[in-house]
Specification:
4 domains; five-stranded mixed sheet; five-stranded antiparallel sheet; Immunoglobulin-like; 14 helices; alpha+beta; 17 strands
Length: about 575
């Protein structure tokens, strides 16, 4: 008999969850990592009058801190007033006041903000006042500031928390769903209850700590500033922060569901009627919150992307939860395990695992096409290369899973029609088969841990489609001259721009007698194609409307002759897409 009060509480949880999820979904979708769309002063501009402030504009909401926007003068010192803020309340922009009376020379504006999806976005550019004679040297500083990292260990801590939060969530949701829908009797197992509570604690702790660490990670601050109120407030105002807050609320609402397992232990075969719908509602809400905190709603067709990501997360949760349930039953069987139930449980979970694997592969493939879009993006961006590693791990996981499935079929003699040749009701495998299945399940769990780790890293990368649109940059040295090259957008066809900055060992612009550049596509017979470089200023050469006939990995070769008569060549690999 169901307690009416408890039943009403369960239905209330379902209703509250639905409202919270709808509120978050209705807040709208956003782009991936925020992208810079405009600056004031403009990049590479030469001003006659010193500006009163520096402003940068993004295509998405960004979080600011006192150190989010910094400006460095010709001597390398800070010339900003350190009061970065949203000008006029515009959450898409960041501004900082500048010291009055700035002199002639080149200045570097560097930023590091937190995008609405919770990930740091950073970069730097140069503008000049009166003259751009030292713009090349300022560009070196801009490059260093654009790639600087925060306090040692902060990034590692953030990565570990992402992994722990995702792992705990998948185990909690997947195992709860299987216990509620496929094998209710196992909810009474002390070992299963302990795993559920551990996963709940891991997910909750990692979520709360992740919000705090995200602030210092994005602002380049040490872990000692993790509880700074201004940072916490800013993070909670982002889409990532709102999604994480929703996850915390849903995890708290999960407590009565977990507690019901112990309360129903005496009558494990008939779980309380409100538990399955509550598990489905709360689990779905947790998956929605996780999807909205990442790249699911970025790129083209964001609603479709959200559907794919939810399917992917749900399949992964069932996969992980099923493996954990099998491990809990097969590895050192507990004293309170259901007698004679191992065979039926394994057959049931194996069927769920097969369905989950199909969902994961199909949804993951569809989502990859959205976020990658091209072979170039797959192999020439951090997101794409990380995705390749994940695909290889999942393929290996499928192979090991197939071994487990063959063990299950061989153990009970299952055939296509579902009959169990030579097996009576409740029959199970012999000790050797159980041991073999247990070992493959443990191997699958180890691979799952690796896949979750790679997924956590993938979430922090700029989606491959977006990253592939960024300019190509590289640096190489010959005869003591540093050659820095930028090719934008590095795409097949016309309209490409090439900028080359020559620097001495001291980092100052280097004047040379001549600089020639040529392009060649190895193995195709194309080239060399001369790049018509023009001198723009000391150590700065450029070419516009450069034609790159076809996509591929080109070789860009520079021939340098210094004023002292030394000559040398240097080459860089230029991926063209």
């Amino acid at each position: 008999m169901v307690n009416p009060t408890t039943g009403r509480a369960g239905r209330g949880l379902v209703g509250v969850t639905a409202v919270l999820v709808l509120l978050l979904v209705s807040s709208g979708t956003a782009s991936a990592h925020a992208r810079l769309v405009a600056t004031d002063p403009a990049a590479s501009s030469v001003l006659l009058v010193p500006p009163a402030r520096a402003v940068i504009h993004f295509d998405d909401v960004v979080t600011v801190d006192a150190g989010s926007l910094r400006v460095f003068g010709p001597g390398g010192g800070r010339v900003d007033e350190g009061n970065a803020s949203h000008p006029g309340g515009d959450s898409h922009s960041v501004a900082v006041g500048l010291s009055p009376g700035l002199g002639r020379g080149s200045y570097v504006v560097a930023w590091r903000v937190i995008s609405d999806d919770g990930h740091p976005v950073h970069g730097a550019y140069v503008f000049s006042i009166g003259s751009d004679r030292d713009a090349a040297r300022a560009s070196v500083l801009a490059g260093a500031l654009a790639t600087e990292s925060g306090a040692a260990g902060v990034g590692a801590v953030a990565g570990v928390l992402r992994w722990a939060g995702l792992a705990g969530l998948l185990v909690l949701v997947g195992l709860s769903l299987l216990v509620a829908l496929a094998s209710p009797g196992d909810g009474a197992s002390r070992r299963v209850r302990r795993i559920l509570w551990s996963a709940w604690g891991l997910a909750l702790g990692a979520t709360v700590a992740g919000v705090a660490v995200e602030g210092v990670y994005g602002a380049l601050l040490p872990l000692g500033d993790v509880l700074r109120p201004s940072l916490l407030a800013e993070v909670l105002h982002t889409r990532f922060g709102r999604a994480e807050l929703l996850r915390v609320l849903l995890l708290v609402a999960f407590v009565p569901v977990l507690a019901s397992a112990r309360a129903g232990a005496a009558d494990a075969g008939r779980p309380r009627r409100w538990v399955p719908p509550a598990v489905v509602a709360l689990g779905s809400g947790l998956l929605v919150a996780t999807a909205l905190a990442g790249h699911a709603v970025t790129g083209t067709a964001p609603v479709l992307g959200l559907v794919f990501d939810l399917a992917h997360l749900a399949g992964a949760a069932v996969w992980v939860g099923g493996l954990v349930l099998l491990a809990a039953v097969l590895v050192r069987p507990a004293a309170d395990a259901r007698p004679g139930g191992t065979g039926a449980l394994t057959r049931t979970v194996a069927a769920w695992l097969l369905g989950a694997a199909v969902v994961v592969v199909v949804s993951g493939t569809a989502q990859s096409f959205r976020q990658v879009g091209s072979r170039y993006a797959l192999f020439h961006t951090p997101y794409g290369r990380t995705l390749v590693v994940k695909v290889l791990l999942v393929a290996l996981l499928l192979v090991v899973g197939a071994t487990s499935r063959r063990t299950v079929h061989g153990s009970w003699g299952l055939r296509r029609g579902g009959s169990a040749a030579g097996a009576g009701p409740g029959a199970g495998p012999g000790p050797v088969r159980v041991g073999r299945l247990a070992r493959t399940v443990v191997a699958e769990l180890a691979l799952v841990a690796a896949v979750v780790g790679v997924t956590a890293a993938l979430v922090n990368d700029v989606p491959a489609r977006q990253a592939a649109g960024l300019p190509f940059t590289s640096s190489v040295t010959t005869v003591g001259v540093q050659v820095n090259v930028i090719v934008d957008p590095a795409r097949a066809g016309i309209g490409n721009e090439v900028h080359v900055y020559l620097l001495s060992a001291a980092g100052t612009p280097e004047a040379v007698l001549s600089l020639d550049a040529a392009l060649r596509l190895p193995g195709s017979g194309t080239g060399p194609v001369r790049v018509p470089l023009h001198l723009s200023g000391p150590g700065h050469y450029y070419a516009t409307d450069v034609v790159l006939p076809v996509a591929g990995t080109w070789t860009l070769t520079f021939a340098v002759r210094t004023v002292s008569g030394r000559a040398g060549t240097a080459s860089v690999r230029l991926p063209v897409h």
